[in-house]
């Protein structure tokens, strides 16, 4: 009789970690290929369409970078939270709350202030909005031991309905012919775009700089050391005198604030007014979870991971049009990859063996 045993791996090389990641991605793509077959689509043709739609043309590549910008910001913030094993599933609502705060500043202060002043104020307001929304589940966990997965997930729905309430109620513009939108932001509050594209360069530069700062913070500072210790062994962290409450609150300020800035970038760079939640965000808060996992919770690698998944989003739009597949195809693609990435992470940290009853 055989029995499955699971033991901790004492050490695994960088090459072994990379190999496990590659195998997890390959297995995920194999399963996705099977799903394409069930839909009556040639998997190789579908993968080729996705790659050509996102990276095969200059237009597709520029759209990929556009969608990568919020994924970089949110993914970096989630990497910090996940590093401490605080499972923030609410980045979608933190993005929306940042968009709300940033829009309010832009609409009320923008007409009287020049661009070099109002734009930083909007990003600061977005950071505050996202951080505020991220602190709520942190306080609930610290004070009442409420699971952060549940609280952050539920806050997504609350924020989405609150945003809808604003645009159909007190913030609804009388100039939009009855549509549920706010007034347009003043020109001083709109972000400049890279010529011939929708890439808002200020947010892109901000995202790249933020990833460098987060990487240094996580791996070269005392705060980063505390974050990693809390994630690896909370009991050891408390024994070492690490302030668990302070560190947890700071983690969610950073994670929520990064998502909030992504919301400001989407509104000020692309839409120029506040509208329905699914218009402001194409599910970036959820996709960024997979981005952070693929990057192995390293903000520096988040940049490449975000570009990869942004390519899937853009390529997914292409196969919807050319192959007639439903919009949920991209969600299935991302969800399947996430499952296999988590499985790969499990096998990286654990050794699974089949032993006979006698050996056990």
UniProtKB/TrEMBL annotation:
Q: Which GO terms describe its molecular function?
A: transmembrane transporter activity
Membrane topology of this protein: Multi-pass membrane protein
Q: Which GO terms describe its cellular component?
A: plasma membrane
Q: Does the keyword Metal-binding apply?
A: no
InterPro entries attached here? ABC_transp_permease
Q: List keywords of the entry alphabetically.
A: Cell membrane, Membrane, Transmembrane, Transmembrane helix
The principal localisation class reads: membrane
Location within or outside the cell: Cell membrane
Regions crossing the membrane: 12-45, 65-82, 94-111, 117-140, 152-171, 199-219, 248-268, 274-294, 301-321, 327-347
Protein name per UniProt: ABC transporter permease
